[in-house]
Amino acid sequence: MPLPADACAEGEAAAASRKTEPDFHLTDSASVHPADIAAHLENLSLEGQVSALSRMSTEDAAEVLVELDESVAVDVLESLDRDMAAQIIAEMSPDDAVDVLDELEDEHRDALLDKLDREDSEELRTLLNFDPDTAGGVMNTEIILLETHFTVDEAIAHIRSEMADKESPYYAYVVDSQHILMGVLSLRDLMLAKPGTVVGEAVAGQNVISVTHDTEQREVASLLSHYNFLAMPVVDTEGHLMGLVTYDDIMDIMHDEASADMLGMVGADPEESVDTPWVESVRKRLPWLFVNMLNSTLSAFVVYMFEGSIAQMATLAVLMPMVANQAGNTGQQALAVMIRQLATDRFDQKKAWMAVLREGKIGMVTGLVMALTAFAGAGFFTGHMGMGAVMGGALLCDMLLGAVAGGSIPLVFRALGRDPAQASSIFLTTITDGAGFFIFLGMASLFLL
Amino acid sequence: MPLPADACAEGEAAAASRKTEPDFHLTDSASVHPADIAAHLENLSLEGQVSALSRMSTEDAAEVLVELDESVAVDVLESLDRDMAAQIIAEMSPDDAVDVLDELEDEHRDALLDKLDREDSEELRTLLNFDPDTAGGVMNTEIILLETHFTVDEAIAHIRSEMADKESPYYAYVVDSQHILMGVLSLRDLMLAKPGTVVGEAVAGQNVISVTHDTEQREVASLLSHYNFLAMPVVDTEGHLMGLVTYDDIMDIMHDEASADMLGMVGADPEESVDTPWVESVRKRLPWLFVNMLNSTLSAFVVYMFEGSIAQMATLAVLMPMVANQAGNTGQQALAVMIRQLATDRFDQKKAWMAVLREGKIGMVTGLVMALTAFAGAGFFTGHMGMGAVMGGALLCDMLLGAVAGGSIPLVFRALGRDPAQASSIFLTTITDGAGFFIFLGMASLFLL
Predict the structure, then answer these.
(1) Mean pLDDT of A100-113
(2) Which of B6, B291, B340, B432 to mutate against chain A (most A CBs within 10 Å)?
(3) CA of A355: which chain B residue's CA is closest?
(4) Highest mean pLDDT pick, A1-15, B202-216, B244-258
(5) How many Cα atoms within 13 Å fall on the side-chain side of residue B42?
(6) How many CB pairs under 8 A join A and B?
(7) Percentage of chain A with pLDDT > 70?
(8) Chain B residues touching A224 at Cβ < 8 A
(9) Which residues of chain A lie closer than 8 angstroms to B326, CB-CB?
(10) Per-residue pLDDT for A388 more than 80?
(11) Domains annotated on chain A, with CATH
C-alpha cells in the first residue's frame, strides 16, 4: 500500500469512526479523501459497500463512486435503491457517469436514465453513443466558455460564477458566435493579462491544438503528454467545441496502455486484470494458445526432418532446446525495446530500421560471447570439440536471427496495420525455435554424422 | 505521428519559415508549441540543433530544451557556447535543469554551475544531491507559499504577483512560521471562498497528503494518480515544505514505469530505449543471457537423463519442445497479468493468492483443451495412441504448472524484496522447460518403452 504511514492511519481511523458516527460528513474540515474511502470500501462486502454509500450525501457518494474500481462501482450501482442511484449519477460529472453507465445492463441503464431530468439524460445518452475508446467516449461536456467580446475582467467574473459547477476550470475556451473554437486561455493567462484586454484579441492568431471526437484515446493521451496540457479540447469535424478530455482521465489511460503491451505481447487480452472472470480469460487466451500450438508444430516438423540424426546421436536432443531458448530470450529483449518505442510518438521509418540494425549489433556481440561459452561448455561436457563448434555456431546464427526478428516483428505488424504487441512473442518463438532446431540439427548432420 | 493534420502542417510551415526569417519569435501570437519545435529539432543534425537554439531568446531556448529527449538535450548543451548554456539553465525551472545537469560530465556541470548566480547554483547543487529516482530528485522548488494570517484576498493578490515566476500555480501551500506545511488551497478554493476568510482557518484540520523527499518516484506517481492531484508537496522528516512534484513530471514517469515492466520481465534494462548506445545494452543484457544459459543447462540436464529413451525413440525429441513451449506461453500470460497488477496499488496478500488460484483454473481448463488436441494430433500423426496419451498428459501437467508458476513468481520476487518483473520470464522458462521435459520424457519412458 503506497500511502505514507500517517495518511493511511488517519484515513482508516476516520473510516472506522464513521461506522459509529453515521452523521460524519465528508465536507467536514477533517475530511478523508474520497479515493481513500473508496480504497477502504473495496475491502468490504457488497452489502457493506451499499450501506456505507447509502449513509452518505449524494454528493459524497458520487465522489467515492468515481474512485471505486469500475467493476465494483457497477455492482454497487446495481444493488443501490434506484432513486438513490439516479441521484448519484446526476451528481457525477458526465464523463464519469458515462463510464459506469456503459458497463450496466441495457435495461438497468435505461431505467436510471429515465429517472434523471430530461437535459441530463439526453446529454448522457448522446455521450453513450461515442465509442468508449475515443475522445468522444472520455470527454467531459461541462466547459467554461468565453465569448470573443468579453474583457479579461468579465471573463474572470464569469469563470468565478461558473466554476463551482464545472469539473476542472484550468482553462477557459473562447468560441465565436457559431460555437467554433477560437482559442484557449488559462486562469494564469487571465490573471496576468492587462485589465481591459478583450479575450478575442488575446487569442487572435492562436494555433489551437484540439482533437476530433473520433480520435483514439491512446492518441489523445500521447498528445496531452507531448504538450503537457491539463485538458485537450474535443471538436467535431466543423470545429465546433464539443467537450474536454482532462489529465486525470488520461493518467489512467496512459498507465493502462503501457502495460497493455506487455499482456498483448504474450497473447493475453490487453484489458485483462486479476478481476477479469477466469472463464472470460480462458476464452480470450485459448485462440492464441492454438496459434502457439500450430506454430510449435512447425518447429516440431523441423525436428522430425532430423529424426534420423537424433536416433544416431541423442546428445543432439539434449542441446537443441538450449540454442532455441537462448535465441528466444535475445529476441524477446529486442521485442520489448521496440514495442515500448512504438508506444511513444516521434518514431519515423528511418529511425525504426536504425533500431533494428542496433538490435542486430547487440545480437551479434551477445551471440559471439554465448557461442564461445557454449563451445567451451559443450566441448568440455561432451568431450567432443566438434559438438562444441556446432553448438556455438548454431547459437551465434540463431541469436543474431532472434535479435533481428525481435526488432522487426513489431514494425512488420505495424506496417500491416496490426497492433505491434499482439502475440508478437508467439511469432518470435516460432522463428527462433524453428531456425534454431534447423541450424543446429542441420549443422550436426553435416559435420558430425 | 499522432498530431492532428492541420496542427502538424502549421507547425512545420512555421518551422520552415523560421529558417528564412531568423527574427521570427516564439512569443509571436502565431506561436508554435515548444514541444513541436523540439520534435522538429530532433530530426536535425547536432550543428543544426545548436544553431537553431542559438538564434532563439534564452527563454524560448529553455522551453524547447526541456521538451527534447534527454540524450539530445545533453548533447546540445555540451556543444553550445558555455555562457549561453548557463543562461538557458538559469531560465529553466530547477527540476528540469537538474534532470539535464545530472547527465552532464562532472567537469562540464561544475563549469556551468559556476557561471550561475550564487543563489541559483546553490539551489541546483542541493537538488543534484537527491537520488534522481526519489521525490527530492524530481521536485520543483518554486512554490507559492501563503502565511496562515493571510486573508483570501491577500492570498489572491500574493499569488497574482508571484505566479509569473512559478511553474505551476495550481495550488498554494499554507505554512506556519516554522515553514511547516499546514494545508493546501487550490486557486479554485480561493476564488470560491468568502472574502475576508483567513487562510489559516480555511485549512484548519485539513489532512494534508504529502510525501517525504526520499519517497520513490514510482510511489509518488501512484499517489498522485490515486488522488488525482496536480501536484504533491514534498516535506522533510520534520514536515518542513521542501518542494512540489507536479503532474507533468509524473505523466512521463508513469508511462515509463509501466512499460519498464515489459523490459524487466525479459531481462533487459527497464530504462533501455532505441537511443541507448548498443554497447551499453550488450553490457546490461549479457548477465541475464548468462543466467538464461545456466537455467537452460538445467533443462538440458533433464533431457540428458533420458538420453537413452530418446536414442530408442527419436519421436520424443520431436514432441518434447512443443510441451515446454506451450506451457511457457501459458505461464507468460499469467506472468504479465500479475506484474501489471502489482504495478497498481491496492493489492493485498489475500487477493494476490486468489489471483494465483484464478490462474490455476485457467491453466487447468486451457491445459485440458490443449491436451485433448495434442492427444488427437500426436495420436494421428505418429499412429500411436499411447504417444498421444503421454503427450496430452504431459501438456496438461506442464500447462497447469506454468500457469501457477507464472502467477506466483512475481509474488515470490516481491516477498524477497526484488522487482516483481526483473527477469521473471527467464525463471519461468526454466520451470516450464525443465518440468515439461521431465514429465514428458519420464512418462514416455514409463509407459512407452
Answers:
(1) 88
(2) B340
(3) B274
(4) B202-216
(5) 23
(6) 359
(7) 91
(8) 251
(9) 289, 292-293, 296
(10) yes
(11) 5-129 (1.25.60.10), 145-253 (3.10.580.10), 278-447 (1.10.357.20)
